[in-house]
């Protein structure tokens, strides 16, 4: 499987504050990779640097595809209230002929279950439906890589579960490559093929974990699976040990041995 994204020795500094301390990792085509780390460790900065919204202080980001799209946590600010749902989804497609714009938007709205809401305004929709519009807009762009910055953090638990399953279905059916930043350990295990665990600021890579769960996942049975529980505990332990007060380099060297242990499946 070829790499869709390659990040090499990526670093970013705000003035005297080092937010990202030299990250290197890859994301394979068709993979869904989750990034977790302590609050304030630089996860969002990482995503913005990969997307090109922020210029790195050092290192390289290589995207092996023609387009990327970003879905942010604050869906209410990312949608234009004066445009219809259809208009919002069509917005990044303005360079395309009108008929193609409409066809792509209609298709993306069908993917996220909002075909009947095309003529409504965002403010007429619930929070979960607004986030579906944001996801549809990103998918209509047909990105080679979909970047998501804590996309479900602002919705209730039931809506979060529905949107997680929506993302898994869209990714599976359309072979989309996805990189998700999340603060939720359970979500990272439920969604991911791999989990990248970051240290406290400046962000360094603590662990790159494969998720040994079946591709087909269920909110009830998957979350009670022995492998799910074991991996969730491991990620929690890694995050706790990887706090800013720790010597990350020294700890990571010792931890690599424990990462070779088999997680029950």
TrEMBL record:
Pfam families linked to this entry: ABC_tran (PF00005)
InterPro entries (UniProt xref): AAA+_ATPase (IPR003593), ABC_transporter-like_ATP-bd (IPR003439), ABC_transporter-like_CS (IPR017871), ABC_transporter_ATP-bind (IPR050166), P-loop_NTPase (IPR027417)
SMART domains, per database record: AAA
ABC transporter domain residues: 5-225
A molecular function GO annotation: ATP binding
SUPFAM superfamilies registered for this protein in UniProt: P-loop containing nucleoside triphosphate hydrolases
Domain of life where this protein originates: Bacteria
PROSITE patterns, A to Z: ABC_TRANSPORTER_1, ABC_TRANSPORTER_2
Protein name: NitT/TauT family transport system ATP-binding protein
Source organism of this protein record: Lentzea xinjiangensis
Highest classification ranks of the organism: Bacteria, Bacillati, Actinomycetota, Actinomycetes, Pseudonocardiales
């Amino acid at each position: 499987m070829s790499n869709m994204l390659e990040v090499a020795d990526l670093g970013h500094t705000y003035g005297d504050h080092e937010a990202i301390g030299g990250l290197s990792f890859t994301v394979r085509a068709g993979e869904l990779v989750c990034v977790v780390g302590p609050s304030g460790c630089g996860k969002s900065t990482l995503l913005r640097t990969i997307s090109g919204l922020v210029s790195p202080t050092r290192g390289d980001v290589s995207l092996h595809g023609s387009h990327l799209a970003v879905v942010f946590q604050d869906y209410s600010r990312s949608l234009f209230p004066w445009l219809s749902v259809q208009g919002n989804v069509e917005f990044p497609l303005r360079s395309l002929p009108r008929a193609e714009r409409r066809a792509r938007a209609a298709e993306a709205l069908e993917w996220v279950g909002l075909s009947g809401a095309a003529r409504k305004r965002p403010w007429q929709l619930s929070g979960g439906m607004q986030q579906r519009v944001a996801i549809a807009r990103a998918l209509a762009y047909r990105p080679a890589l979909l970047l998501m910055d804590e996309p479900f953090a602002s919705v209730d638990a039931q809506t979060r579960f529905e949107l997680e399953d929506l993302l898994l279905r869209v990714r599976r059916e359309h072979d989309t490559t996805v990189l998700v930043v999340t603060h939720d350990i359970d979500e990272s295990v439920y969604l991911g093929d791999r989990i990248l665990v970051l240290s406290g600021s400046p962000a360094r890579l603590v662990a790159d974990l494969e998720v040994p769960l079946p591709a087909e996942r269920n909110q009830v049975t998957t979350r009670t699976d022995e492998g799910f529980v074991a991996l969730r505990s491991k990620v929690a332990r890694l995050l706790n040990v990887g706090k800013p007060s720790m010597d990350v380099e020294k700890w990571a060297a010792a931890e690599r041995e424990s990462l070779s242990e088999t997680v029950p499946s």
